[in-house]
């Protein structure tokens, strides 16, 4: 079974082809980082227009790379939400039209389910159940994953997401956008122990997170020390250590609380090497193991969407497109917990949070 995946929820146009038993056949990505850099964040209207420009050329490109024709496809998966409404509509329109033309199913996929299941793309043998840490620009969640579509929330952020904290810290340090990779790079030259930043809620006894206080602490520190290049590296280092400490503490807490021994890490912040190092060490100490998607599949991409669509299709089929008349909707706000396992039809709670 071959599935084309289309991701347009935010500022990356991702297109990929996956095949059961073979994994990724081809994938292509266009990042809009340059487009939004001058604004310090994503401008939704510019994002939508750029998706319009990129999507069909990228689709042709992955088909050519894989040596396939559109008629070789068995389904087209696309990100239905959560994300920017206009950006989602571009991917949904192209995917639904393509599927309708080819008379194959269109599979609307939850963006976070894509992230969540992406480590299985590299390690198909990874078994359920596991604990998943989802750390992206918009989300910081710990989930218990019992099967495709069976997710229970263990912990969530009360304010900023981890990636958002990286992005805001990068801005405060003048390191540009997107912040995560920039802060990680700067931190490499930072001297350990120069600054001590708070570890918000690390010892709160639950599995929830809070990162807005950390961002405020960085702002205060920057105003006080007015850092030069070395000072910026020192603060980036201290910040990365603080975030990592909190994430590690919560992940070990979740493994202990559930008694599970596999931790799956997904989402953009999962590309952070220091975080991976620390999680590997912490898991080893618990007799557990951590699994990650390949670094290039941590941030948004089409392969994770194609893969989630394929897993759902194989596990009993999905209700796919909403109606016989070809109408479809996107869900800019869509709680992951509301998803139902494949084959059970779409639950009433697979609906926007409002
Ligand atoms: O999953 P993703 O690509 O998009 C969302 O769905 O949000 O995650 C993007 C987030 C951004 O906040 C970015 O700064 C962060 O992931 N990120 C990183 C790294 N690479 C990306 N954060 C820390 N270290 C990295 N190496
Ligand atoms: Zn994402």
Task: Estimate the helix proportion, in percent.
Answer: 40-55%
Residue stretches low in confidence (pLDDT < 50, at least 5 long) are 346-354
- The helix tally amounts to 11
Care to count the β-strands? 10
The largest beta-sheet arranges its strands as: 3-2-1-4-5
Q: What is the CATH architecture annotation of the largest domain?
A: 2-Layer Sandwich
The portion of residues forming beta strands comes to 15-25%
CATH topology of the largest domain: Nucleotidyltransferase, domain 5
> What structural class do the secondary elements suggest?
alpha/beta
Q: Radius of gyration, rounded?
A: 20 Å
Bound molecules: 5'-O-[(R)-(carboxyoxy)(hydroxy)phosphoryl]adenosine, zinc ion
| First and last CA, distance | 35 Å
What is the CATH top level name of the largest domain?
Alpha Beta
The shape is globular
State mean pLDDT (0 to 100 scale): 93
CATH homology group of the largest domain: ATPase, nucleotide binding domain
């Amino acid at each position: 079974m071959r599935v084309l995946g289309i991701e347009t929820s935010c500022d990356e146009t991702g297109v990929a082809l996956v095949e059961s038993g073979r994994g990724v056949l081809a994938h292509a990505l266009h990042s809009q980082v340059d487009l939004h850099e001058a604004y310090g964040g994503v401008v939704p209207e510019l994002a939508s227009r750029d998706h319009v420009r990129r999507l069909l050329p990228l689709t042709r490109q992955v088909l050519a790379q894989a040596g396939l024709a559109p008629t070789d496809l068995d389904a087209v998966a696309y990100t239905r939400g959560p994300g920017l409404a206009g950006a989602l509509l571009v991917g949904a329109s192209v995917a639904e039209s393509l599927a309708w033309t080819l008379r194959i199913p269109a599979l609307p996929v939850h963006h976070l389910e894509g992230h969540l299941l992406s480590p299985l793309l590299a390690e198909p043998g990874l078994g359920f159940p596991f604990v998943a840490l989802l750390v992206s620009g918009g989300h910081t969640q710990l989930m218990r994953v019992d099967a495709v579509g069976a997710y229970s929330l263990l912990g969530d952020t009360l304010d900023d997401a981890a990636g958002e904290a990286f992005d805001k810290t990068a801005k405060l340090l003048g390191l540009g956008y997107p912040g995560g990779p920039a802060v990680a790079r700067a931190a490499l030259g930072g001297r350990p122990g120069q600054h001590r930043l708070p570890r918000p809620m690390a010892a709160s006894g639950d599995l929830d997170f809070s990162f807005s206080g950390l961002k405020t602490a960085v702002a205060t520190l920057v105003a006080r020390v007015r850092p030069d290049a070395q000072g910026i590296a020192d603060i980036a280092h201290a910040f990365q250590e603080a975030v990592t400490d909190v994430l590690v503490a919560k992940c070990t807490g979740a493994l202990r609380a559930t008694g599970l021994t596999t931790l799956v890490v997904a989402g953009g912040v999962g590309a952070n090497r220091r975080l991976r190092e620390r999680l590997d060490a912490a898991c080893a100490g618990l007799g557990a193991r951590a699994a990650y998607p390949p670094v290039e599949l941590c941030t948004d991409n089409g392969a994770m969407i194609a893969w989630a669509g394929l897993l759902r299709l194989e596990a009993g089929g999905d209700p796919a497109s909403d109606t016989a008349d070809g109408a479809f909707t996107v869900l800019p706000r869509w709680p992951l917990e509301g998803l139902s396992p494949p084959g059970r039809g779409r639950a009433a709670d697979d609906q926007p949070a409002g």
